[in-house]
Amino acid sequence: MEALLLMMTIQGCLGAFDTIYHHEFTERLPWKASASRELWIHGIRNFFYGIIFLSLGWIAWGGELAWVFAATLIGEICLTLWDFVIEDQSRKLPPSERITHTVLAINYGVILCLLTPVLLGWAEFPAGFHLQSHGLWSWVMTVFAAGVTAWAVFDYLRSSRFRAPADVPPLHLSQPNQRVLVTGGTGLIGSRLVQGLIDDGHDVTVLTRDKSKAAKFRGRLTLIDSLSQLNPVDVIINLAGESLSNGLWTKAKKQKLYASRLDLTRDLIAWIATAREKPRHLINASAIGAYGHSDTLEFREASAPGEPDLASDLCRQWESLAQQATRYGTKVTLIRLGIVLSLDGGALAQMLFPFEFGGGGPMGSGRQWMSWIHIDDVAGLIGHVIDNTLEGPVNAVAPQPLPNLDFTRTLGRAMHRPAIMPLPGFALKLLLGEMAQTILLNGQKVIPARAETTGYRFRHPNLDGALHHLLGGKM
C-alpha cells in the first residue's frame, strides 16, 4: 500500500505543477474563451481525483462498491482522453506540458497496476465503506484531496466566465483586394491583423519560419519562409522582432533584440530596391520606447526624446533603417506601439496570474506612466494608416495613459481582486536586471496626436472599457 500511496503523491505533485505552471502561468487558460471546455473538463476530472485521493487515504470500498470505485478510475481515464482531444483542437501544447502529460499517464498506469490487488482485497470485504488509516500517508492524501476538490470548483466556475468569443473585427479598408505582406504575422499583433485582413478579403502573405503556427488562421492565406518567394505586394507590414519583455537581457539576448529587427528590415529594403513593382507603403513597427523615458514629459510624435536607454537606441536604429525605403518611392510609417492589451500575450497576460490570486499591485514607485492600447485598436489604427497613407511616426496608444498605480488599481477592480501587493523596484532589478528598469520601472506619457487629428476613432479609449471588453465583465 505504501508504494501505491507514494505513486499517488508523485501524481499529485505532477498534477499541481501542470496546473499552476502550465494551465495558470504560461498558457493562462482561465483567461482564454477558447479554453472554456477544457476548464470544464478539468473541473469534473479534479472532482474525481478528490474522491480517489480521499478514498485511498481513509476509506475501503467493500464488496460491490469496489467495482464502483473501479468505475470512477475508468471515468477519470475517459475524461483525460477527452481532455487530450479538446487540447489538440483548441491550442498547441508547449513541449514541457506534453512531457508532463506523458509522465502523468505513465505514472497513472503504474498506479492502476498497484491498485488491482487493493481492489480485489476490497471486494472481499462486506459491502459498505470501511474506515482505515495509513498514518501520515492518510493525511498526505487528505491534503491532495482538499486541493484538487477546491481547484475542481475553481475551474468549473471559471469555465463559464466568458461570453462566446467575439470574432476578430475585419479592418474594412477603403480599397479592396489589396496585396499585403505581414512579417511577424503569427505573433500577438500579427495574428489579429492577419485574420482581420483575411476577413476583409485581401490577398495576405505571411513571412514565417514556422508555418505550423499559421494553422490557426481561417481563410485564404499565402505562407512563405523567404523573401525570394515573395510576389509583388501593395503594402508591407513589418512586425517581426524578438520580445523585449521575455527573459533577461544578457549579451546574447541583446544581440537577438537588434538582429531580429535590423537584419529582416535590411532584407526588406534590399527586396524593395530590386523589385520591379515597388510596394507603395511600408508600415514598420517601433515602440514608444523611441522617446526614452520621463516621469514628467508628455510625448507626441514631434517631441524631442527623453532620457535614452537600450529601448530608445533600438527603436531609433530600427526606424532609421526602415526610412531607407523612401529612396525607392515607398512611403514609410513608423508605428510606435505602447503596451498592447490582449489575453493572448504581452504585459496584461503576464499580469493576470498574480492578480488572479490576490498578488497584484504597483511596480516600483507606481508613478511611471503606462501608455497602453487595446489589441483591436492596434489593428484598427494600422488600417487607418493604410487608408490615409500616413507617413512618419504614429503613436499607437490610447488617448488616456495612466500612472502604474492607477493602472493596477483599475485592473484589480476589473478582476474583482485587491491590487495592494507592491513589487519593490530593487527586487525587480535584482530579479530581471536591466530589463526591469527599462521596461517595467521607466515609463512614458504618450499621446496619440496624429491618430486623433487624422480622425481615428478608438474602439476602446479608456482602460475600464478596454479591460471590460477583454475580461468579459465576469470573474
What does this 3D model show about the protein?
This protein has 475 residues and is α/β, with parallel strands linked by helices. The protein contains 15 helices and 15 strands. The relative contact order is 0.10. Helices cover 51% and strands 12% of the residues. Strand 3, helix 6 and strand 4 form a beta-alpha-beta unit. The strands form 5 sheets. It has a 7-stranded parallel beta sheet with strand order 5-4-3-6-7-9-13, sandwiched between helices. It has a two-stranded antiparallel ribbon with strand order 1-2. Strands 8-15 form a two-stranded parallel ribbon. The chain has 2 domains: 157 residues, no CATH class; 293 residues, 3-Layer(aba) Sandwich (Rossmann fold), CATH 3.40.50.720. Helix 3 runs antiparallel to helix 4.
